[in-house]
Design a protein that fits this description.
This protein is an alpha/beta fold and 446 residues long. The protein is 33% helix and 21% strand. Pfam families: FtsZ_C, Tubulin.
Length: 446
């Protein structure tokens, strides 16, 4: 049987957050690297209130584009302000170089959110350092980060995995948002810029969903103590946001929150701690609250703790929004990260040959025929002196060995396609065919 933790705020009795809450909770959001800074910009644009924004970067140019009021240029000795070059070890070194600067900015915070796009240099390397500093200051430390899109390649995916392991060791709770899941659930016609903006928005929702639970007093209130109890030292965390409207708005909102397509491979099964924030535009019925809590807790541990709050937001216009944060899993001490995705080789379909092109297979039979000086081949290329095949040439897969010589062809030109490496950039010498299975058309210029 689970436990429900609630705090009733009675407006009619004249209680408010200032009277009952004491000193306000100080929340600081730190955007690490380019991805983290972009997410912070999105939060500022969305007017996320009652939090302090900080961004740090090794790239001075990128730092200058941030809207954050506090900008930290880190690692200037090691990077000269030019960025980490995609190397996490440089990002880590940069953060260590300016750890005193970071410490001073985090001092006084009750809770620190760390946002970053994992896989690059500055964000991947600096985020664990920032988390360690925040924990040393006694802050509740939560990281909300993204992992790379599949098309970004195996190197970034591998670096993201290694960075997540380090980050997991330093934070109280870690929420990982896989960009590839986003890619599977968005309009395929979105531009690259729009796709990354979507990723920023989801990352923003993770921070916003948790901070709103603390900073927005409601009719039924969850406070910082509830959040600390649910997230301190918990390791892996899962969050989801769902919206419902109409007759079944409560059921739909709860279901959508725990079946978020962004969390396709994550479930709240076995969670021991549930933070649930319910937002509605008007009075919500006790029956609806009960239905939401019942759906959310159905898969949780039998001895779960649930902390729930309810806030009225007129702008929802009859809808219900449910935010769920689940922690306390059996394997929370272990970080489970998907293996780096092996990006398949892209093979383009052969295109119809133009009249002025000839396939490589066909041209081989032409090129390797005995060629005499001044003899025209196909009316488009005039070869110079012939060069006999050698065992070394055959071993290398030499193309047109009997066609090229030390002399420049008396007429015409040959431009090697991608995949062929001319000897010392001298097109009068044989081009080396590196891949025996390579098949492509090449054009002989007029």
């Amino acid at each position: 049987m689970g436990n429900l933790g609630i705090s009733i705020v009675d407006d009619e009795a004249g209680y408010d957050s200032e009277v009952s809450g004491g000193s306000p909770t100080v929340i600081k959001v730190v955007g690490c690297g380019g991805g983290g800074s972009n997410a912070v910009n999105r939060m500022i644009f969305r007017e996320l209130s009652n939090v302090d924004f900080i961004v740090l970067n090794t790239d001075l140019q990128a730092l200058g584009r941030s809207r954050a009021p506090t900008k930290l240029a880190i690692g200037q000795k090691v990077t000269k302000g030019l960025g980490a070059g995609g190397k996490p070890e440089v990002g880590e070194q940069a953060a260590e170089e300016d750890k005193e600067l970071i410490t001073n900015e985090l001092r006084g915070a009750d809770m620190v959110f760390i946002t970053a796009g994992m896989g690059g240099g500055t964000g991947t390397g600096s985020a664990p350092v920032v988390a360690r500093i925040a924990k040393e200051l006694g802050c509740l430390t939560v990281a909300v980060v993204t992992t790379p899109f599949e098309f970004e390649g195996n190197v970034r995916m591998r670096q993201a995995k290694e960075g997540l392991k380090k980050l997991h060791e330093q934070v109280d709770s870690l929420i990982v948002i896989p960009n590839e899941q986003l890619f599977k659930n968005i309009d395929k016609n979105l531009t690259v810029k729009e796709s990354f903006r979507k990723a920023d928005e989801v990352l923003c929702q993770g921070v916003e969903g948790i901070s709103n639970i603390i900073t927005n007093p409601g009719d039924v209130n969850t406070d910082f103590a509830d959040v600390r109890n649910a997230m301190a030292g918990q390791g892996n965390a899962i969050f989801g946001i769902g919206i419902g409207e109409g007759e079944n708005r409560a059921t739909d909102a709860a279901y959508n929150a725990i079946h978020n397509p962004m969390l396709e491979n994550s479930k709240i099964d076995g969670a021991k701690n549930l933070l649930v924030n319910i937002c509605a535009s008007e009075e919500i019925t006790l029956s609806e609250v009960g239905e939401i809590c019942k759906i959310v807790s159905a898969s949780a541990d039998k001895d779960y703790n649930m902390f729930w709050g309810q806030v009225t937001q007129p702008e929802l216009e009859g809808k219900i929004s449910v935010t769920v944060i689940a922690t306390g899993f059996e394997d929370s001490g272990k970080l489970t990260v998907e293996q780096p995705v092996v990006v398949p080789e892209v093979k383009s379909e052969p295109k119809p040959a133009r009249e002025d092109t000839v396939s490589l297979n066909d041209i081989n039979s032409i090129l390797h025929k005995p060629a005499s000086s001044g003899a025209a081949l196909g009316g488009e290329f005039v070869a110079s002196h012939g060069v006999a095949h050698t065992p070394d040439a055959e071993k290398k897969g030499t193309l047109g060995a009997d066609m090229f010589s030390d002399d420049i062809p008396s007429a015409g030109s040959f431009t090697p396609p991608n995949g062929f490496i001319p000897d010392e950039n001298d097109l009068t010498k044989p081009a080396i065919w590196n891949k025996s299975e390579f098949s492509r058309t090449i054009r002989l210029d007029d």
